[in-house]
Design goal:
three-stranded antiparallel β-sheet, binds ligand NAX, Lactate_DH/Glyco_Ohase_4_C, Malate_DH_NAD-dep_euk, EC 1.1.1.37
Length: about 325
């Protein structure tokens, strides 16, 4: 039998955490033959709720779950973890702007970075979910210099999956037939969902989504807007933000990263920019990536038209601003 993998979930008593931990314990993240030990971190006000989650995990009698660490101590939480899913953060409440929560999240991600750097297992893979996800990941990278930049990523897979689902509805094909959409840039309303390179698998082979839709105007306007605003629509409907789809996307992200992407398929991940597609090096920017042997690489050579170029630049601009805002919080 395989040795258990230690998976940390921060903010585990929150709503994404509640949806995510049972998925991990069921093998959705790392596969049905991979035992796991769950490390769950939250803060003092949520300590009782966290205990409750631990009790439920025990009661669910998951065969793959070999242990649970539930704690409010960051060091204990990070000890020996192979995978860290960072969901904990200071929420953006109604009437607040992203920049209002920046100082709080900068200090949280600075502390979590140091704990991971000192106590995580070597080669620990990190996924930042909490918003502002891309910028929290930059702060984490800054304060955990010994963790390779290849190992620090942020979640844009939910946006990617939303884009797949919109194409599937529009073309009336099953979601599993659609692939290779791209979410470029920031996990925010400036993200650019791009279906110009996407394909649909049909009985007569692969067809281009762009040809099947035959309406660039729709791809440029409604499609982009629906994907960008989907999170808000869910809040309106549920009075709570996306949780089960976010948890599922986090599992997809880690599963593809660790176990690989299928041949001919790419996915979107927020990763360290090496300057590909003219994106400022050092930003954490969502790119199309393929994964093999536990490493992602940015898909190269896609043709970028003028429309896409402008959208990709605009979201990069926003990330540059967020980054400088985050660094200015550090100096306060
Ligand atoms: P909740 O407020 O339900 O849960 C957050 C949890 O984090 C709470 O239990 C809180 O006590 C805990 N927490 C706060 N500070 C902490 C700290 N310093 N250490 C450890 N835990 C801490 O939010 P939820 O709906 O679960 O969302 C979590 C985060 O995901 C938010 O930042 C949210 O904006 C972000 N999202 C990101 C998405 C993405 O695609 N990247 C999509 C979904 C979601 O909106």
């Amino acid at each position: 039998a395989k040795d258990p993998v230690r998976v940390l979930v921060t903010g585990a008593a929150g709503q994404i955490g509640y949806a995510l931990v049972p998925m991990i314990a069921r093998g959705i993240m790392l596969g049905p033959d991979q035992p796991v030990i769950l490390h769950m971190l939250d803060i003092d006000p949520a300590a009782e709720a966290l205990k409750g989650v631990k009790m439920e995990l025990t009661d669910a009698a998951f065969p793959l779950l070999k242990g649970v660490v539930a704690t409010t101590d960051v060091v204990e939480a990070c000890k020996g973890v192979n995978i860290a899913v960072m969901v904990g953060g200071f929420p953006c409440k109604e009437g607040m702007q992203r920049k209002d929560v920046m100082p709080r999240n900068v200090s949280i991600y600075k502390a979590h970075a140091s704990a991971l750097e000192q106590h995580a297992a070597p080669n620990c893979k990190v996924l930042v979910v909490a918003n502002p996800a891309n910028t929290n990941a930059i702060i984490l990278k800054e304060f955990a210099p010994s963790i390779s930049e290849k190992n620090i990523t942020c979640l844009t897979r939910l946006d990617h999956n939303r884009a797949l689902s919109q194409i599937s509805e529009r073309l009336n094909v099953h979601i599993s037939a659609v692939k290779n959409v791209i979410v470029w840039g920031n996990h925010s309303s400036t993200q650019y969902p791009d279906a110009k390179h996407a394909t649909v698998t049909t009985n007569s082979g692969e067809k281009s989504v762009r040809e099947l839709v035959a309406d660039d105007h729709w791809l440029h306007t409604e499609f982009v807007a629906i994907v960008q605003q989907r999170g808000d629509d869910i809040i309106k409907a549920r009075k709570l933000s996306s949780a089960l789809s976010a948890a599922s996307a986090a599992c997809d992200h880690i599963r593809n990263w660790v176990l690989g992407t299928p041949k001919g398929t790419w996915v979107s991940m927020g990763v360290h920019s090496d300057g590909s597609y003219g994106v400022q090096p050092g930003l954490i920017y969502s790119f199309p990536v393929t994964c093999q042997k536990g490493e992602w690489s940015i898909v190269q050579g896609l043709k970028i038209d003028e429309y896409s170029r402008a959208k990709m630049d605009a979201t990069a601009e926003e990330l540059i601003e967020e980054k400088s805002l985050a660094y200015s919080c550090l100096n306060e």
